[in-house]
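Quick sanity check, Oxidoreductase:
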Amino acid sequence: MDKRRIGQGGPFVSQIGLGCMGMSDFYGETDRTESIATIHEALEKGITLFDTGDFYGVGHNELLLGEALKGKRENAFISVKFGAMRSPDKSFIGYDARPEAVKNFLAYTLQRLGVDYIDLYQPARVDPNVPIEETVGAISDMVKAGYVKHIGLSEAGADTVRRAHAVHPISWLQIEYSLFSRNLETYILPTLRELGIALNPYGVLSRGLLSGKWSKERTTNQKDFRSHSPRFSGANLDKNLQLVENLRKIADEKHTTVAKLAIAWVLAQGEDIIPLIGARKRSQLEDATDALNIQLSQEDLERIEQAIPASEVAGDRYNESEMKMLDSEK
């Protein structure tokens, strides 16, 4: 598998990474055996980047990833998000990115993963009550102590990225990016490129809308994030599924699938982009790695963007309260 660099002078990792969140949380029932098998197959296919969060499954995801990577640590670049707080019933009860909290969260993460250091550590959101300089400064202390190698940000706006980068070099920004989520192209992406910071997109299939397998009749339970998502609701869903059908016509012409084409589009946006693929099953992982073989011409890219105009996507990517938490959307 080809490699892409994280930040200026940073390490090279596989050009796609495995997002492990869905193996523990947010998308309904999970299968531990299949999850571990998927992580092992990712390693076999040359994937070295694995992304988790300490609040995914209230620690479950870190324990799962630590178990799957036991004896294979040297082959993995582990990125971890922190900051979200949850109660025993798994509801979200706040966010904390104070310097003391940073170090506390990290201590538990190291223990759950069974590792001596984290390759990249990042706040899951920008804490509105804590200057980003203080949060990044605390992670920088952990870099100096050897517990963290690189620092990232998640869902941060352009100004916040600049402020953070002035404290300690930021290696990447993790943010949702797909044919259905392109707001970052206006200010955030140019800022990253000016500063030499990589982009680590998640949600490249827009939570499954761009999988080509979603239908109007499909239902979700209350444990599934999508049951509360504006893009999966009512008239918004109807409109978005029509956009998917526009893309399917191009995919059919190229003898590929909607999902593979959507992933290939993200990969084609620049060598500084390292997408996460949220595969919970080996079959989903295979779709992602197949996308690496798709070459898109400039004409292909233009046709794809005409099929899914950014202005035509219906509904926000999160509900109203969650959108207000995104520094990247301010």
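Posting the structure with no commentary besides this: The first strand starts at residue 3 and ends at 5.
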